[in-house]
Amino acid sequence: MKCESKNKIADSKTGILLPFGERANGQIVHISEVRNGLSCECVRPHCKARLVARKGPQKQHHFGHYASTECRHAYESAIHKLAKEILCKEKKIKIPEVKAEYMDMKEIIQREIIFELDEARLEEPISGIIPDVVALKRDRKLLIEIAVTHFCDSMKITKIRENNLSTIEVDLSQLSRDATALEIEEALLYSAPRAWVY
After folding, report:
1. Is 110 exposed, middle or buried (0-12, 13-18, 19+ CB in 10 A)?
2. How many other CB atoms sit within 10 Å of the CB of residue 166?
3. Please, how many CA atoms are within 13 Å of residue 148, restricted to the half-sphere of its CB?
4. Which of 6, 83, 92, 186 gives the lowest tally of CB atoms within 10 Å of its CB?
5. pTM over 0.85
6. Mind listing the pLDDT tens digit for each residue in 19-64?
7. 120-134 pLDDT tens trace
8. CA-CA distance, 116 to 90, in Å (whole number)?
9. Rounded to whole angstroms, how far apart are CA atoms 104 and 173?
């Protein structure tokens, strides 16, 4: 599945508000994977408030907030955590080509490749920043940032460049809010837009 125009984020009137919840063991699950009601035994990934699975016959299935106010970061937190789980499990990601540019000349130094990881570490502090994922391959490190609604800000980019940290950012902002875990995996690993931060 490619991230095309049909995959634009749905707004709260037409799309699912929260398609993912978190189980007690920390695993992110799609609404289709759980039982209805409170028996889903899930919480919001961002703030750990209890969720109820709403799987009725009329509306699109989604998680709702059981006894607290809406959490505006719940969707982004769920996608971030799921993406990190995918990278830890699959241990690979497509990285963009590397280009050298000088004046009017451009040359491709390395074509895009599938980067195989030995290990993926989640939110491990490095040189004054906390990247989403630190991917390790022998003695090489690749930082992976996952953009859902927020992209790397100028302060983070400056620290990445000052510390000479190879970093890519994968743009998941165009995915539909009702994308399945498999669609998110495909987008993250292969088809979503991605670019070098440094």
Report:
1. exposed
2. 16
3. 18
4. 6
5. no
6. 888 898 988 999 889 998 888 989 888 778 888 888 888 778 888 7
7. 988 889 999 999 999
8. 9
9. 32
Residue for token pair 């963009």: 96
C-alpha to C-alpha distance for 122 and 119, rounded to whole angstroms: 10
Structure-token match 């875990």, residue found: 181
d(CA 100, CA 73): 38
Per DSSP, helices labelled H in the chain are: 74-90, 154-162, 181-186
187 close to 79: Cβ distance less than 8 angstroms: no
Type of residue at 52: V
Q: Quickly tell me which residue has 């931060």 as its tokens.
A: 197
- For residues 110 and 125, what is the distance between their CA atoms, to the nearest angstrom? 28
Residue type, 164: N
Amino acid code (one letter) for 173? S
Say if residues 157 and 181 touch (Cβ distance below 8 Å).
Answer: no
